[in-house]
Amino acid sequence: MAKKKSLVKKSLVKRSILAPRTGCALGVCNPERTQGIRAPAPNGTHVLVELKGDGVFLAAEVSKQGGTNDLTFVIMDIDGRNVTNLSFAALANQGLTQHNPYGLVLLQTISLKTMTIGFPTPLRYRRSLTLSVDVNEPSVVQILANVIHGTA
């Protein structure tokens, strides 16, 4: 008896949006939040979150309480390459105070300023993701950071 051969080659089979083994959407498997805090935050550079290994960056927020001139810089590096390095003052001066396609927004109240970082697509890192701040102003009471990340 003759058997019918499949006409579809393996290379022509389209890849599903869902990861084949886990069933979760590509780029956002196993999401979690990693938090870092520095209170008080004296002048200098402080690493708030350091992630090692392979992963996917989804979003982050850094809140600053206190300070006199907003010259505290938020620095994010992925695999040793700089993704962002802007001060709270620069965000205000550039008008990045509402949703925009650039991925950085400054939200502020009387006592708290929050920088959010989130791009239209997730950013993958192979070796590391580091979120740090460089404080160049007196009287910063506290800096709190949250990074939302997943596995690839």
Descriptive key words:
152 residues, Jelly Rolls, six-stranded antiparallel beta sheet, 1 helix, 4% helix
How far apart are the termini?
Answer: 46 Å
The count of DSSP E runs of length 2 or more, i.e. the number of strands, is 10
Mean of residue pLDDT values? 87
Q: How much helix, percentage-wise, in residues?
A: under 10%
Number of domains: 1
Please write the string of helix (H) and strand (E) elements: EEEEEHEEEEE
Alpha-carbon Rg, integer: 21 Å
CATH architect. name: Sandwich
Strand count, sense and barrel status of the largest sheet are: 6 strands, antiparallel
CATH topology: Jelly Rolls
Label the structural class: mainly beta
Structure commentary:
- With 152 residues, the protein is mostly beta strands.
- It has one domain (24-148): Jelly Rolls, CATH 2.60.120.
- The protein has 1 helix and 10 strands.
- It has one helix at 88-93, and strands at residues 29-38, 44-52, 55-66, 72-78, 81-87, 104-108, 112-117, 123-125, 128-135, 140-151.
- The strands form 2 sheets. Strands 1, 3, 6, 7, 8 and 10 form a 6-stranded antiparallel sheet that branches. A 4-stranded antiparallel sheet has the order 2-9-4-5.
- Strand 4 (72-78) and strand 5 (81-87) form a beta hairpin.
- The longest helix has 6 residues, at 88-93.
- It is globular and about 45 Å long.
- It starts with 28 loop residues before the first strand and ends with a strand.
- The model is unreliable at 3-19 (pLDDT under 50).
